[in-house]
Design goal:
CATH architecture of the largest domain: 3-Layer(aba) Sandwich
CATH topology of the largest domain: Aspartate Aminotransferase, domain 2
Bound molecules: pyridoxal-5'-phosphate
Number of helices: 12
Strand order of the largest sheet: 2-8-7-6-5-3-4
Oligomer: single chain
Helix content: 40-55%
Shape: globular
Largest sheet: 7 strands, mixed
Structural class: alpha/beta
Distance between the termini: 37 Å
Number of domains: 2
Number of strands: 15
Order of helices and strands: EHHEHEHEHEHEHEEHEEHEEEEHHEH
């Protein structure tokens, strides 16, 4: 049996969602067609839009279905930036937190490199939480020329929850794009109450299939499309509408939101037991962002004298699925930009192990890690000592 502790990478599709999805895949009809098939598909789509909006404190017209979190982030950040520049060419600046996912980070870099945007990275503290003073001092000199600010709801590596309300308050009229891919379904998210202009979510992080997500965009938000085509979804997200995916997303969100309070407490208890026990078994392991408000299922550990690759290999052999805090680009493990932003040197940033729990996690998963990780750490340390010689 494999213990799966990589729910932040992707989490199982819920059985009820999968059943509905398979049923919907058998239905014929483009939601934009006028005939009865099309109208039936449109009904599924619009009901899903209403359900999703109701669960996330949004108006149905504020839901734009996308292919996932990456597309929603690109549309939220780049689309908002483009609209702002077209209205006022002097508004070319974009500022994002240093711990954003690559979907936001690289989109901002792209704006800087190819569209002459002034891109600023805002620092975080040692817990990986946005430094609000850095935001204030940025705004003090760049408010008038800023098109959009991007700050995520919660970080995918550390689980650290970001001070979104304070960010929105400081930004005032400047639109805030929020990547809530790791947050939706795991902590309460109310779009209207948050005050953000756009918010990204992704199906496969909460029990829907890969390939469906959404951008919530306030009715007064001006966005330009990133993809050009048939003009579906308020004219900003062209492409044939995916009624089956929309329903799967809405059902998964609805189930996750209904279970949220109980599930959040259950996961936090499991995670806290895992953290406390590991700190006894591997006393120098350091739980990251533990002093911040964290997502309930996240545990990022820094384990001195190890390399994440060796840890992951050892765990895989022990049938435990985990991940590192670092991104893997074309097979080469890079130290995590998140951990570097939190003050780690490259060596330390390469010794991070991310264990993330989700809906299917049980005490047995925690026990499996507790049983096997100490020996895996010892072997990883031995390999590291040999490599360092
Ligand atoms: N943003 C965050 C915080 C994520 O964790 C991820 C996925 O890992 C994404 C964006 C990208 O989402 P998707 O995989 O749906 O494109």
């Amino acid at each position: 049996m494999t213990a799966y502790l990589d729910h932040a990478a992707t989490t199982p599709v819920r059985a009820a969602v999968a059943a509905g999805y398979v049923e919907d895949l058998a239905r014929l009809g483009n939601p934009s067609s006028m005939h009865a098939f099309g109208r039936a598909a449109r009904r599924v789509l619009e009901e899903s839009r209403e359900s999703l909006a109701a669960d996330l404190g949004a108006h149905p017209t504020e839901v734009i279905f996308t292919s996932g979190g990456t597309e929603a982030d690109n549309l939220g950040l780049v689309g908002t930036w483009q609209a702002a520049v077209e209205t006022d060419p002097a508004r070319r600046a974009v500022a994002i937190s240093a711990v954003e996912h690559h979907a936001v980070l690289d989109a901002a870099h792209h704006l800087g490199a190819s569209r002459a945007a002034e891109a600023t990275i805002l620092g975080v503290d040692a817990e990986g939480v946005l430094d609000l003073a850095a935001l204030e001092s940025y705004l003090a000199q760049a408010r008038e020329r800023t098109a959009v600010v991007g700050v995520m709801w919660a970080n995918n590596e550390t689980g650290a929850v970001q001070p979104i309300c304070e960010v929105v308050e400081s930004c005032g009229e400047i639109p805030v794009h929020c990547d809530a891919v790791q947050a939706v379904g795991h902590v309460s998210v109310d779009f209207t109450e948050s005050g953000v202009s756009t918010l990204a979510l992704s199906g496969h992080k909460l029990g829907a299939p890969v390939g469906v997500g959404a951008l919530l965009a306030r009715r007064d938000a001006t966005l330009r499309p990133v993809l050009h085509g048939g003009g579906q979804e308020r004219g900003v997200r062209s492409g044939t509408l995916d009624a089956a995916g929309a329903r799967a997303l809405a059902s998964a969100v609805s189930l996750a939101v209904a279970e949220l309070v109980e599930e959040r407490a259950r996961l936090a208890a499991l995670r806290d037991r895992l953290q406390a026990s590991l700190q006894t078994l591997v006393p120098d392991a350091r739980a990251r962002s533990a002093g911040a408000q964290r997502l309930p299922g996240h545990l990022l550990l820094t384990i001195p004298g190890t390399d994440a690759d060796a840890l992951l290999f050892g765990l895989d052999v022990a049938k435990i699925a985990a991940s590192s805090g670092s991104a893997c680009t074309a097979g080469v493990t890079q130290p995590s930009h998140v951990l570097l932003a939190m003050g780690d040197d490259e060596r330390t940033a390469r010794s991070a192990l991310r264990l993330t729990l989700g809906r299917t996690s049980t005490d047995a998963d925690v026990d499996a890690v507790l049983a096997d990780l100490p020996a895996v750490v010892e072997r990883a340390r031995a390999a590291y000592r040999v490599g360092a010689r």
